[in-house]
Amino acid sequence: MLQNKNVRLLLWILGVLTLGYVLWNVRTIIYYFFAAAIIAFIARPLMRLLSRVKIKGMALPNWLKSTIVLVTFVTIIVSLFRMLIPTVVEQAQIISKIDTNNIVERVQPQIESITSWMQKANIDKDELQSIIQKEISSIFSMGDVGKYITGFLSGITGSLIASFSILFISFFLLKDGSIVDNVVASITPDKYLDKIRTIFNETKDLLTRYFVGVLIQITIVVIVITLGLTFMGVKNALLIGLIAGIFNIIPYVGPIMGALVGISLAATGQIEANPDLNMTSFVLTALIPFAVAQALDNFVLQPLIFSKSVKAHPLEIFLVILAAGSLAGVVGMIVAVPAYSFIRIVAKEFFNGYKVVQGLTKDL
User: Which helix (H) or strand (E) covers residue 55, if one does?
Assistant: First the structure.
């Protein structure tokens, strides 16, 4: 008997190791699947809207609704790329012409104004100037624009394969909405079947609300920053707003990174157009649209998304994101909320007898 148990344990360990090896080697496909699932979650409201459309009393078939949704999605993405690629090229050309020594000279007065503070902190002014010049050079060192363009072109093939794969998977997730449910149900013991179905239904509804909310959040951030910079006369304001919106996906640190990159790009464009620009005044003014966007995001958008979509307290989400960031870095912070939401739903179905689970899932 003991020998049989040891054999089963060994086989179980070998099975887990084999599964882990296989999953690691097909991780790219898993990434494609998760990207397709996000598209499917975002597209669900549009699929429901199309379900109400009837032609001669007949509803649209699922394959046609899925096609319409994906064609709309691709059209929007392609239109954005067509609009932004010339802007990216123009911005790259502007950066390639930046004189880093000139920028260092412009910030020299600010360095001089804090000389007394640096002396108290035992900071060598010449060393600080050298560090600043080095960092500015690393940020704006794009003289060899051809190298970046070559790298971009070399990645087109991989991007096309990834895009086709994601769209192909998305099509069938939208067309056959219960395909994943059926696969999971087929390998689930009958006594757990009802709970598993409940978990899938609640997860789809919750994540649909969450990802749609995040899309709305990004869109509003992009609009606010783009309009603010456009009003200031900043070149390529849409590109800067879009970059800031994408960085905003990363909780807490993303907006800071987006603001730093955005203001750097805005400053390069303004220096090229106006060599006598007061850098300090411009940077402080350019911070306003980013600050307004973040105030709106922190006090209006995020509470609505977290409270209404995932039904969790903002402090609870904050702690979860911090923990996920410690465990898995930036990627962990991005996936923390949907992963935590899924865990709460599973815990509610299988461990609802525990008080801590009841407390964490009372609003679900």
Answer: strand 54-55
State whether residue 234 is helix, strand or coil. Answer: coil
pLDDT of residue 98: 61
Stated as kind and residue range, the H or E segment containing 54 is strand 54-55
Calculate what percentage of the chain has a pLDDT beyond 90.
Answer: 1
Which DSSP helix (H) or strand (E) runs through 30? helix 27-51
At position 30, the amino acid (one-letter code) is I
pLDDT at position 19, please? 75
pLDDT tens digits for range 206-223: 888 888 888 888 899 999
User: Which parts of the chain sit beneath pLDDT 70?
Assistant: 1-7, 90-158, 272-277, 307, 353-358, 360-361, 363-364
Strands 58-59 and 54-55: antiparallel
Q: Which two tokens stand for residue 80?
A: 């954005």
Instruction: Spell out the residues 6+ positions from residue 32 whose beta carbon is closer than 8 angstroms to its own.
Output: 162, 165, 166, 169
Q: Are 314 and 324 in contact (CB under 8 A)?
A: no
Cα of 288 vs its chain's centroid, Å: 23
pLDDT of 265 reads 80
Give the pLDDT confidence of 143-156 residue by residue, as tens digits.
444 454 455 445 55
Closest by alpha carbon to 66, among 52, 48, 41, 47? 47
Distance between CA atoms of residues 147 and 287, nearest Å: 32
**DSSP-derived secondary structure for 61-98:** PHHHHHHHHHHHHHHHHHHHHHHHHHHHHHHHHHHHT-
CA distance 2 to 192: 30
